[in-house]
Amino acid sequence: MQKYIGLLFSIVVILVSACGGNENANSRASDSEPKEISGYQIYKTHCRQCHGVDGRMGLNGAKPIPDSELSLEERILHISNGKGAMQPYKGLLSEEKIKAVAEYTMTLGKE
Ligand code: HEC
Predict the structure, then answer these.
(1) Is the CB–ligand 1 distance for residue 70 below 6 Å?
(2) 75 touches ligand 1 (CB under 6 Å)
(3) Alpha carbon of 68 to those of 28, 42, 55, 90, 100: distances in Å?
């Protein structure tokens, strides 16, 4: 019996320290999250539902982004003002964010 109590006690200790360790890891991860604007993050949140991860999903007639011949400036305009089924993002995203996501679309399917 003595043996089991000892075993039980060490299991509890291991569990408690394992949980504590996880908590630390989580808070460290959120501390080191990138602060800069990420075109990839914006794309994931606002664009992927129509254009897909690789830019080729084409929902509602969205053109495949990897085949697009639009320049960066044209993309910024297109994203700001919208076109067809695509809404204007001017009021939704800051200029910086529109530029970041436009830059990201230039790299889609190119790697
Ligand atoms: C509601 C669906 C939808 C969402 C969300 C959406 N788009 Fe579009 N997108 C479209 C459609 C439809 C077109 C084609 C418009 C047309 O030419 O009539 C398009 C066209 C484009 C084009 C031009 C491709 C070309 O060569 O003509 C780019 C670049 C683009 N989208 C980027 C984005 C970005 C960046 C986002 C996120 C900020 C986004 N889209 C969000 C539907 C969407």
Answers:
(1) yes
(2) yes
(3) 40, 19, 10, 21, 17
Number of residues assigned to the chain: 111
- pLDDT tens-digit map of 68-105: 999 999 999 999 999 999 999 999 999 999 999 999 99
Q: Rounded CA gap, 75 and 106, in Å?
A: 9
Residue nearest to atom 20 of ligand 1 (CA): 62
Q: Phi first, then psi: what are they for 18, rounded to 5°? A: -65, -45
For 59, residues 6+ apart whose C-beta sits below 8 A from its C-beta are 49, 50, 51, 52
How far is ligand 1, taken at its centre, from the CA of residue 13, in Å?
A: 54
